[in-house]
Write a structure and sequence with these properties.
2 domains, mainly alpha
């Protein structure tokens, strides 16, 4: 289980960002969305990154991939493939009821139950 905590954003110093042990620079969603709002000129990547704004707000992975493209100007084939895969998964994700955990929704084999 990875632990996470909230830390103030290093850009705006107002909002909090959820941080894990491997995040060096905590940036809140608002500041990251401002960063990736720059226009894209390449037609191939413009079509790739033309997804719903709420998907970017939900997924830090999608925000980081777009940020990497804007910083370096290109992506590898694996990055493009994973971006498409994650965007589809998030788009077709079923909303989980609050208060329920994933393992409660799965069937438990009888061999693990004690009678």
């Amino acid at each position: 289980m990875r632990y996470s905590y909230k830390q103030k954003c290093i850009v705006c110093r107002k909002d909090y960002a959820i941080v894990t042990w491997k995040d060096r620079n905590p940036v809140c969603v608002k500041c990251k969305m401002k960063e990736i709002a720059r226009p894209i000129k390449d037609g191939k990547f413009k079509k790739l990154f033309d997804i719903d704004k709420t998907l970017y707000e939900k997924s830090g992975f999608l925000r980081n991939i777009k940020s990497s493209y804007l910083r370096f100007g290109n992506l590898s084939e694996k990055q493009v493939e994973m971006f498409k895969k994650v965007a589809q998964e998030i788009k077709h994700e079923k909303p989980v009821k609050k208060g329920h955990r994933e393992f409660l929704e799965q069937e438990i084999p009888l061999e693990f139950l004690r009678f």
